[in-house]
Specification:
Length: 295
């Protein structure tokens, strides 16, 4: 312990000694500069005013020697200011203190940023832990050219598809946009109907009103498999949060104003397909296809 303290004191003494020696050299240089200035100034004045050398070079009624001395005087004054004021105030200790102060400021900023990151990470982790096992599912019926409706109405009637929709969504939350909800006669029975709308005053029987898909999913946080059922814009938003797509692919092209987004095969993989061809009382062939998102 004592050896370390002595080493610390020696280092401080050496630093003080080096600083003192540096100050002595600076002052000696100023003194030499001043003596040289006096001798050379006297010589210039003698040559100019006594010997009259260079009279033709006078500028603004001042001879060349006066201009030289004025410029040199400014340089000498700057040298004096630099040594006796600037370097006395802004010395190594001052620079070191400033660096230490700036380092402390940066440390506090880094500490604050780390704290914010830790808080956000904790919130994100809690959010993920609550929903890691939740199978958010899009359920949709779309034609070969991805049309899902026209003028807020279904274009086809497939009773097998409606039965499948009922069986899959029964007992779960169903998330939809306002227009999709208003296209139905009433809220779907045996399900929790969550309606997304910007209208804060929107009300209807047997529904939960939210203003975003994020808030809709918060409402469904205890449901192991909430379903997103439309319309087009809600499907687009829902693709980011969904883990599964239950698609009824109607094997026919239709005209319509509502389109389901193209399924990116690099993100989604087909895990199941059931062909429903030549079904009695059905006008079109169709298939039930299940896609899961690559993990």
């Amino acid at each position: 312990m004592f050896g370390n303290n002595n080493s610390s004191i020696d280092n401080e003494t050496i630093e003080l000694l080096e600083n003192a020696q540096s100050r002595i050299r600076q002052k000696k240089n100023v003194y030499r500069h001043f003596i040289f200035y006096l001798f050379v100034s006297g010589f210039f004045l003698f040559v100019d005013l006594v010997l009259a050398v260079g009279k033709t070079l006078s500028i603004f009624n001042y001879s060349w020697s006066i201009w030289v001395l004025l410029i040199w005087t400014f340089i000498l004054l700057y040298h004096l200011f630099d040594v006796f004021i600037s370097k006395k105030i802004i010395n190594k200790k001052w620079v070191s203190n400033q660096k230490s102060h700036l380092i402390e400021i940066q440390k506090e900023k880094i500490k604050s940023l780390r704290k914010d990151i830790e808080i956000e990470s904790k919130i994100y982790a809690e959010s993920n832990s609550n929903n890691s096992n939740q199978m958010v599912t899009i359920i949709v019926a779309a034609s070969e050219n991805d049309v899902i409706g026209d003028n807020n109405k279904l274009i086809w009637h497939l009773s097998k598809d409606l039965i499948r929709f009922k069986n899959l969504t029964k007992g779960h939350h169903v998330i939809m946009g306002r227009k999709t909800f208003e296209s139905m006669p009433k809220a779907l029975p045996n399900r929790t109907n969550v309606v997304i709308t910007r209208n804060k005053n929107y009300t209807a029987e047997n529904i939960v009103v939210v203003d975003s898909i994020e808030n809709a999913l918060k409402v469904c946080k205890d449901d192991p498999q909430p379903f997103i059922i439309g319309g087009g814009e809600i499907y687009k938003l829902g693709l980011e949060y969904s883990k599964r797509i239950e698609l009824t692919r109607v094997h026919h092209n239709f005209e319509g104003d509502t389109i389901f987004p193209e399924i990116d095969k690099e993100i989604w993989k087909e895990v199941k397909k059931i062909k429903m061809f030549d079904i009695e009382n059905h006008d079109y062939n169709f298939s039930f296809i299940t896609y899961d998102k690559f993990s």
